[in-house]
Amino acid sequence: MLTGARVTAGFRAALFEAAGRAGMTPGEFALIAAGEKLRASGRDFPGVFSAHERDAARA
């Protein structure tokens, strides 16, 4: 996942650090962040993220 994305070294380091602190892979962390952004913009989709996963991403 995320193999086609080109990001700066600083962004990559921040993503990997935050994912590690949350106890998940960078791909999982990115998916949860994307899901939160979609929900915040009013999109609704069933059963992809549990409250526990969203809370873990914010930690």
Q: In short, what is this structure?
A:
The chain is mainly α and 59 residues long.
Question: What do the pLDDT scores average to?
Answer: 82
Give me the count of strands.
0
Shape: globular
Radius of gyration: 12 Å
Which range does the strand content fall in? under 5%
Helical fraction equals 55-70%
> Treating each run of at least 4 consecutive H or I residues as one helix, how many helices?
3
Order of helices and strands: HHH
Structural class: mainly alpha
List keywords for this structure.
59 residues, mainly alpha, globular
Describe the structure.
The structure is a single chain. The two termini are 22 Å apart. With 59 residues, this protein is an all-alpha fold. α1 packs across α2. The mean pLDDT is 82. It contains three helices and no strands. The longest helix has 15 residues, at 26-40.
Secondary-structure blueprint of this entry?
Layout: H1 9-22, H2 26-40, H3 51-58
Helix pairs in contact: 1-2
